[in-house]
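During data preparation, we tokenized the protein backbone, and the record follows.
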Amino acid sequence: MSLTVRSLCLRWAALLFPSCGLAGPVDLEPRVDPGKGAFGEPQALEVCLGTARLDPHPGALGPRGLCVSDGAPERPCDGEDGCSPGERCLCGRCTLDTCRPNAPCDEGRLCRDGLCTTPCQHNHECPQGQVCSGGGCAIPCQQSGGCGRGGRCDLLSGTCRADSCENDAACGAGRYCDLTELPAGIREPAWLSADQVVLETREREKEGVRSRIRRATLNAPRRLLLEATPLLEDAGAPAPLRSGGAPKYLFTETADGRIERRLFSENVLGSGEVVLTPQEPWEQGRVGSPSAVEFRGETLLFYEAGDGTAVGVVQVSSGERRRLLTPTSLVSPGRWEKIEWVGAPDAVTTSGGLLLVYFTARGVEGASAWQGTQEFPPDSNESLGLMASEDGIHFDIAPGPLVARRSNLRTYLGERESAAWITEQGATLIFVAADATGAAAGLGLLRSP
């Protein structure tokens, strides 16, 4: 496909200038630095339920907390600088910098007695007031009162350690388990407003995994605070349809692969109504990951078919549906190859009258890495793509991922399941970060410069 000025504007300018016109010669080729595209550097988001951070890693074993005394004061924080040595700022308050085998410490630090600390061989290598014990710096103590909130004194080593727990019963009388981390998967974020999103959490309980839809607010630049009461139980992939700037409907995916719609008025959800069931052979028995948008007087519902076999769209009023994207239709030699699946569409409109559809695909991007004469082919990973339309029928597809890489970065986290919020000033994408296997590793933000 030739890259005309018009199609370049459709594909790229809408990311940075949503009201972009289509006249005049403009060079809109995105940056090709490793890890960068038309957006700036990705920013990690901390997702909190109360004062506990959600841990989406599949290896998370259960709730995790620290035993503290009843009535023990908390110290608020807005960054690591506000906390003492050995602490971290977690969900707006200072807490011990804890660790466990499946949640290792930051690079250059080690896990000792449940705490992240500096490796050492001698006392002089440790911060003032600490000693080298068991290969790591530690705070000397004679009683637990000197070990800070959530710490206790190990009488054998004479140093402080984390007083870890999973429930109140582990802490004894006069104390409780102050939860700091909760195991929960995070999926399908979608914007309700400039500072509010709705998303699906998959919370691990004794009976199994429970899907809930929760609303959340960006109450700090890199912190998302979930509301305590879910909007909806046993549903997933929320997709609000906005009308006049406010949510009008909420589309969701059911456990059996259908899409429902609910009225969303005054923050109250109505009863669910099935609006889409799998019918076509290419849908392979599932329609999910919905995204709805009003465009040219029609409600268009984009969705993922099967387990990533295609992205489809249906006109809600008529029920007419068609297939838009397949893995083979995305292949762009040297940019995006060996596409395994495509899905998770997110549709938005711009003030310039364009319909943009972001999506996720898993494939190989960039070129091989070389060490001398040895070649290291790039691994598959999740990435975000984009297509654009002026009429809702004909779409131009961007040639390659939005966050483009031209070298093999094996440790880089992939991006999937994005949602865009577009204003005259630019675009903000919230997305699910993924590890090399495609497992969710948290949420991130991408902002256009």
Q: What stands out?
A: The two ends are 28 Å apart (CA to CA). The helical segments are 5-16. Confidence is low (pLDDT under 50) at residues 1-37, 406-412.
